[in-house]
Specification:
- Helices cover about 25% and strands about 25% of the residues.
- It has four helices and eight strands.
- The strands form two sheets. Strands 1-4-3-2 form a four-stranded mixed sheet, covered by helices on one side. It has a four-stranded mixed sheet with strand order 5-8-7-6, covered by helices on one side.
């Protein structure tokens, strides 16, 4: 049987409480279990036991060299249901000073942010399969600036993303 989905990710962080506060405020995660130096968080609406594990390694930890001087994980990506939700997250990440970029990949509308330890993550909305055209597929060959207002006008602010792509029909 092939892999079905990512169940959870685990990050090493400098300060668990600081990271818990960030992921709660930025993405609405809830703590489902914790212990000294560790916390396990669940995304709203998730059926996973937990979606994110955080393990504290202390304030003197060096920044991750991944991507600059070593191989390693570039980022994690979480999916939202609607373009309205993507816009709400963009505003919240901007308020927190965490938003570092956004882009339109044709079939994916994406925000990029960094947590308090500088670990990058993505929040995205995926075009539902029924709305994917040859034009949209061709647009995947380049990265364009994200225009949420235009995308909401074109696809609908409340259109459920990922249906037939990441969410079974």
């Amino acid at each position: 049987m092939p892999v079905q989905r990512l169940n959870h990710a685990v990050l090493y962080v400098r300060d668990v409480e600081r990271s818990v506060g960030f992921y709660r405020e930025a993405l609405g995660f809830d703590v489902v279990m914790g212990m000294p130096g560790a916390a396990f968080l669940q995304a709203p609406g998730s059926t996973n036991d937990h979606d994110l594990g955080l393990f504290q390694i202390g304030p003197k930890a060096d920044p991750s060299p991944a991507g600059s001087t070593s191989v390693g994980l570039y980022h994690l990506a979480w999916e939202v249901d609607t373009l309205d939700e993507l816009e709400r997250v963009a505003v919240k990440l901007s308020e927190l000073g965490a938003l570092v970029g956004s882009s339109d990949h044709g079939t994916t509308k994406a925000l990029y942010a960094k947590d308090p330890d500088g670990l990058e993550f993505e929040v995205s909305w995926l075009l539902p399969a029924a709305l994917i055209t040859d034009e949209v597929l061709a647009a995947r060959s380049s990265i364009r600036p994200l225009d949420l207002a235009a995308d909401k006008e074109r696809y609908g602010a409340q259109t459920r993303g990922g249906v037939g792509v990441s969410i079974p029909v």
